[in-house]
UniProtKB/TrEMBL annotation:
Signal peptide feature range: 1-24
Taxonomic lineage: Eukaryota, Viridiplantae, Streptophyta, Embryophyta, Tracheophyta
Superkingdom as given in the UniProt entry: Eukaryota
Family: Belongs to the glycosyl hydrolase 18 family.
GH18 domain segment(s): 30-302, 329-469
Annotated CDD domains: GH18_narbonin
Biological processes annotated in GO: carbohydrate metabolic process
Keywords, alphabetical: Glycosidase, Hydrolase, Signal
Organism the protein comes from: Nyssa sinensis
Entry keyword annotation includes Zinc-finger: no
Gene Ontology molecular function terms on file: hydrolase activity, hydrolyzing O-glycosyl compounds
Name recorded for this polypeptide: GH18 domain-containing protein
Database matches in PANTHER family: 2, PUTATIVE, EXPRESSED-RELATED, CHITINASE 2-LIKE
Length: 469
């Protein structure tokens, strides 16, 4: 999964799946799910930062009822493992779950392809398929200490009713036997796919906890408005279901985070329709370059019309600060949002294996009055100092040796108006900026600065000399 930006915002939620009932699990609006292991890119659970305040599901992709030979053939419900077992082993499942009480791990059945060909749902009979599937999956689930299953067949050599009965009986039996605590399905907008999954939903929807609808299967460049319409349509198709919003990280389809995905999520939240988010996939983000802390947000805290803070993580052969091959930078504290979420540094989960930068947004050389005016390099703090104070900076750095904190200068706006780079003269601006920023940086024990002026009342050469000096 590749994309350039994502936001960070957090909220506390309660764990689910404690009830013995085989009915679907209760609503959890702070659910994050991510597929992992299908593309053998050496991705590990530990590569993915985990927000302790969300319900986090890894979904191993895939278990398939095909032989594992070079020319795979259907096995009528006898499932084999097709994910990267070298990096996603039973011991690694055990480890990630023991280290993170909010993590559950599931496996996904089927998928689009196997051995270079399409992966078909191809039962010999309902009874034999269910019997084989229950037996083989129970063995895998117990070996890996898994919590649930996901259904992701995308090609079919059986009619919708047969599919519905096979999958429905499988889910029923696994839940009744206490083997799994949740089940999901992963349809997308294709006539054949929808006919099969909607037949399953009609007969067994009460046992299906989540609908991982593949909204990224829609055309690349999907708009927020189109996404909302698609979501409404699928909510009608799977009436009463917990439809999860989704995106694909390589940007190949659907609505991407950079184009308004989280705006759509915010709208869904205001409509009380945001049941969670899932992403395809951790493998893509490992291989493709730009990546991120996918779960570093609070689905439950999204506000209407909120401009969400962003996070980007970029691999670097020589990270600027030298100690980690992965760098994450998160802007925090900006009041550009119409409904600030009042984040503290402690609200952001930090992966100890990466170089992590918080960037306080913003310090601006404007007055702090209700009608701000330029101060020619005399910088003032415009971030949320109640939640991002010097003591909080000191605390987060002392608790996390890989964390550094910077401040960002300028930004797009100040108190509702554009924020201009507006020096009186080169020398005076530099003198004032050095003095005021040194004071702020020392007070907050900061490590660096970021330049984010976006509007200018000075020519490029003056800007270059001021900032460069």
């Amino acid at each position: 999964m590749e994309f350039s930006k994502l936001f960070t915002a957090l909220f506390i939620l309660q764990a689910i799946f404690f009830l013995p009932s085989i009915e679907s699990a209760p609503t959890n609006s702070s659910l994050f799910r991510e597929y992992i292991g299908a593309e053998f890119n050496n991705v590990k659970f530990s590569d993915v930062p985990i927000n302790s305040n969300v319900e986090f599901h890894f979904i191993l992709a895939f278990a398939i009822d095909y032989t594992t030979s070079s020319s795979p053939s259907p096995t009528n419900g006898q499932f084999n493992i097709f994910w990267d077992t070298d990096n996603l082993s039973p011991s690694q499942v055990s480890s990630i779950k023991s280290e993170n009480s909010n993590v559950k791990v599931a496996l996904s059945l089927g998928g689009d392809s196997v051995g270079g060909g399409s992966c078909y749902f191809n039962p010999s009979s309902i009874d034999s398929w269910v019997s084989n599937a229950v037996s083989s999956l129970t063995s895998i689930i117990n070996e890996y200490n898994l919590d649930g299953i996901d259904i992701d067949y995308e090609h079919f050599n059986a009619d919708p009713d047969t599919f519905a009965e096979c999958i429905g009986r499988l889910i029923t039996t696994l839940k009744q036997n206490g083997v799994i605590s949740f089940a999901s399905i992963a349809p997308f907008d294709d006539d054949q796919v929808q006919s099969h999954y909607m037949a399953l939903w009609k007969s067994y929807g009460h046992l299906i906890d989540y609908v991982n609808f593949q909204f990224y299967a829609y055309d690349k460049g999907t708009t927020v408005s189109e996404f909302m319409n698609y979501f409404d349509t699928q909510s009608s198709n799977y009436e009463g279901g917990k439809i999860l919003a989704s995106f694909i990280s390589d940007g190949s389809g659907g609505l991407s985070p950079g184009d308004g995905f989280f705006t759509a999520c915010s709208r869904l939240k205001t409509q009380q329709q945001l049941h969670g988010i899932f992403v395809w996939s951790a493998d893509d983000s490992k291989a493709g370059g730009p990546s991120l802390s996918y779960s570093d947000f609070s689905l439950a805290s999204l506000e209407p019309s909120t401009e969400l803070p962003l996070v980007a993580r970029t691999p670097s052969a020589a990270a600027p600060l030298g100690s980690h091959p992965m760098l994450t930078r998160a802007k925090a504290g900006s009041f550009k949002m119409r409904h600030p979420v009042h984040l503290g540094l402690v609200d952001v989960p930090i992966n100890s294996n990466i170089e992590f930068h918080f960037i306080l947004a913003f310090a601006i050389d404007y007055t702090t009055s209700s009608s701000p005016s330029p101060t020619n390099g005399q910088f003032n703090v415009f971030w949320d100092t109640d939640n991002l104070s010097p003591s909080q900076v000191s605390s987060i750095k002392s608790e996390n040796s890989n964390v550094k904190v910077a401040l960002s200068l300028g930004g797009d706006c100040v108190r509702g108006g554009s924020c201009y780079f507006n020096p009186s003269s080169l020398d005076s601006w530099v003198s004032n900026a050095v003095s005021s920023l040194t004071s702020i940086i020392n007070e907050y024990n900061l490590d660096g600065i970021n330049i984010d002026y976006e509007d200018f009342s000075a020519d490029p050469d003056t800007f270059a000399e001021c900032i460069g000096s």
